[in-house]
Every structure is written in C-alpha cells, then in structure tokens.
Amino acid sequence: MPGIKQGEDLYQVDFSLIPPGKLWRFHLNIEDRTFNKKPLGNFCCEFPSINPQNLGRKYRYLYIGSTHFPWGNGPLQAIKKVDLYTGEIQIWSAGAREFTGEPLFVPHPNSTSEDDGWVLAIIYDAEHHRSDILILNAKDLRGKPLARLHLRHHIPHGLHGTFTHKVFLK
Q1: 16 in a domain, yes or no?
Q2: DSSP-derived secondary structure for the chain
C-alpha cells in the first residue's frame, strides 16, 4: 500500500493513492459476545476526541482532525465537530500551508453540557516554520478561534496529543 515517506513533501504526495481514514462506531455487547459497526461519515478523518467525562459512555459530540474537503484524501488541515444525534458537522479550517495535529477536548471546570469546553490543537504553519497552539470554543467551531498562541519554536509535526491539568515546569 502506498504511503508517505519521512521527509517527503506533502505537496508532491498523490493522496488519491492512499486510503483515507474513516469514522466508524463499534458497539460491543459483552453479554452475548457480539459487535456491530456502522460508518459515521464518508469524509477523510483521523484521531477522534470526546469529552473525557464520557469515555466508555454514550456521547453526542466528537471532534476530529480532517481534510478541508468533504470527500477524498489529503493532509489534516481542519477540525470537525460531529453531532452524532443530528448528523450536523461544524468545521474549522487552517490555512493553505497549515496542518493540524490531534484535536483534544478540554472540559470547562463547571461544565453544564457535554460540549461545554475547548478544543486544543497544535497547528504547524509551514509558511513561517512555526507552531501555534489553537484554542477553539467546543460549542461552535465556526467562529474565530478563542486564541492562537504563536510559539517561539516550531514543534515537529506530530499526530497525537494529550492534555493534563498539571503543570510540568522546572
């Protein structure tokens, strides 16, 4: 299967040759040892994130790295919010030469609803060779970011992220 090689220019990659990631929901029934699966969208996406208070439970909203476009494959340059009850999809798109890492949902300390919080992501800006920390309102991704913090140095583009409320400074 074709893939992307280390150091390869993303603008030279033929993404149509690479199978896109898809969003699926799996339901496991541990009593009768069965499972079923169903697709939750037909768009290219990777790395879903939900409110951590709902891990292992029913949830309505998820946030996921995606392409700008509703079809085909490509680099992750957008973040989508998917409402699993209504099917509504909200999208925040990065710039033409910006690439998103894994979006992380951070709940508001006094949450009153499942999507009450923020979505954080590292954005690599290839035009300026720098990284930004992006903070979006989890209720509505369509508005302007709440904050975009320019870092002094770039963080090598990665795929996964984590959040902790603890501070690790020397």
Answers
A1: no
A2: ---PPTT--GGG--GGGSPPP--EEEEEETTTTEEEEEE--SS-EEEEE--GGGTTS--SEEEEEE-SSSSS-----EEEEEETTT--EEEEE--TTEEE---EEEE-TT-SSTT-EEEEEEEEETTTTEEEEEEEETT-TTS--SEEEEPSSPPPP-S-----SS----
